[in-house]
Amino acid sequence: MKPTILFVLLFSFGVTVSAQEQSFDEWLEQLRVEARSLGISDTTLTALDSLEAPLERVLELDGSQPEFVQTFSRYMGLRVTDRQVARGQALLQQHATLLEEVRQKYSMQPQYLIAFWAIESNFGSNTGGFSVLQALATLAFDPRRAEMFRREILTALKIIDEGHITAANMSGSWAGAMGQLQFMPSIFERYGVDGDGDGQIDIWNSLPDIFHSAANFMSSAGWKGDERWGREVLLPSDFDFALAGTNTRKPLQQWRDIGILRVSGGPIPVAEMQASIVIPSGANGPAFLVYDNFRVTRTYNSPIFYALTVGHLADRFSGGAAIQHMPESEQAMSIADVTEMQEYLNSLGFDSGAPDGRVGSRTRSAIRSFQEQQQLPMDSYPSHSLLEKLRNLF
């Protein structure tokens, strides 16, 4: 069976072919020609000889959707446990000297590095069992995101060619994210650091390389070592939920004037900082005042849930309390539920895009516009009560 590859660049001939049908072996040979043109040695390119036809498991994982849209409480609960907190605190002590060295160089607080390490690979115990080259070849051969993953596999070959890791030991996730940091090859190339001075960048086994590389990545993205990520807060009873979301940024003084409080009931501190209000479970869940470091965290992984979890886990490592207002019975929306909601919103003139069961920015914008029309709290949150309200209009 020969899958169709769209817009394949035939570097050996210098032309672009559209809708070119190729076997995997033909595609692999073109990749080899391109890699050789970039200066990658024939010795390194022998690693391509062992690659098999595209792995169905990788394609399944790339194209699959979970049965339910995971709630914030479920997402957080799976990643922030008493056991994880205790282990992170112990590792902070165990590696205190190295972490202080990294903090001095990159101005990144140790608890955040340990939080990234925990979430990305469970402190290095779960780095993925796929061959990075095989996974990237599968995704680069598939037409959906071929160009992006073609660049990644070429970069992975360059990393091998430079002697940082062997092809056999270059393991990672189904998407090609590598090592204890789960860096894509392009991130490794730009931000990887030889922290132990042995001439190699080893994010699979060397903790100095792992911590220096992560801190370098975040520092380069704008991390501020004298600021926290954010904090849980209390909203006033008359809070205008149209102000929630990362698109709205205000000085801390303005949020204080609006009536935002610490969870203790005291006023929030004031500094020369911009912040946003994030409500991951809607109007009835916890609220967070998030700062610049929260935005920087999202360059590592963009979902709001991810950045909140990194920040909260770092706080817990430092002795902070659990989230105070986590919903007790947050109910997940199934893909079918979200699809139905999108269809209703589109029918009413609120553009949520093609109904696909995924809650993205376009769907949230449509929800907010509908809530505004219905004089509901404009929290952009997809819920069963909102779906029922939409059903009643039809």
TrEMBL record:
Keywords: Signal
GO molecular function: peptidoglycan lytic transglycosylase activity
SUPFAM superfamilies in the record: Lysozyme-like, PGBD-like
InterPro entries the record matches: Lysozyme-like_dom_sf, MltB-like, MltB_2, Peptidoglycan-bd-like, PGBD-like_sf, PGBDSf, SLT_2
Signal peptide positions on this chain: 1-19
Residues covered by the Peptidoglycan binding-like domain: 336-390
GO biological process assignments: peptidoglycan catabolic process
Domain Transglycosylase SLT: from-to ranges: 23-315
CDD domains named among the record's database cross-references: Slt35-like
Name of the protein this chain belongs to: Lytic murein transglycosylase
Organism: SAR86 cluster bacterium
